[in-house]
Design goal:
By secondary structure, the chain is α+β, with helices and mostly antiparallel strands. The protein folds into 2 domains: 117 residues, Immunoglobulin-like; 42 residues, no CATH class. It has 3 helices and 11 strands; from the N terminus they run H-E-E-E-E-E-E-E-E-E-E-E-H-H. The longest helix is centred in the N-terminal third of the chain and has 26 residues. It is elongated and about 65 Å long. The termini are far apart. Keywords: Disulfide bond, Extracellular matrix, Glycoprotein, Hyaluronic acid, Immunoglobulin domain, Repeat, Secreted, Signal. Belongs to the HAPLN family.
Amino acid sequence: MKSLLLLVLISICWADHLSDNYTLDHDRVIHLQAENGPRLLVEAEQAKVFSHRGGNVTLPCKFYRDPTAFGSGIHKIRIKWTKLTSDYLKEVDVFVSMGYHKKTYGGYQGRVFLKGGSDNDASLVITDLTLEDYGRYKCEVIEGLEDDTAVVALDLQGVVFPYFPRLGRYNLNFHEAQQACLDQDAVIASFDQLYDAWRGG
């Protein structure tokens, strides 16, 4: 009988002990971070910038990180600038930076660098602008598994619309007009440039 009584008493004490632990665990507050919230945001202050041939331009790009996000600050920031082709099917590498490592590509070598005005500044400076520099550029910032992008358009001012009195105003097809522009060290106007010129009178 004593054995049975001792066994019942041990069971009650054990149940009380488990019940206390359950209450402690049940009352514990657990903070969950939203999985879909942005932890890295990239923005361009201006969607379009203007400059002229031979000049310098800064393509604006800044990034913002969530310092409370898991893993924030442990990965090096990688900044990559590419130029988008007119059909958006291809990207041409312009500049890549990761810590102290920097690399420029193609005709941009020696002409591009990061502005670096602040820790979160990914703006790209292009010097000695050429006619081929006109177009849209993508700024991509990568930190670990997080990344985001912004697009900036570069438009060159001072485009000349040549008039050919010997040939008549409308006697050139597209390829002839393109070649005539190249012969004068110019480029044929894009739709956006023509629209801006029309809108400006």
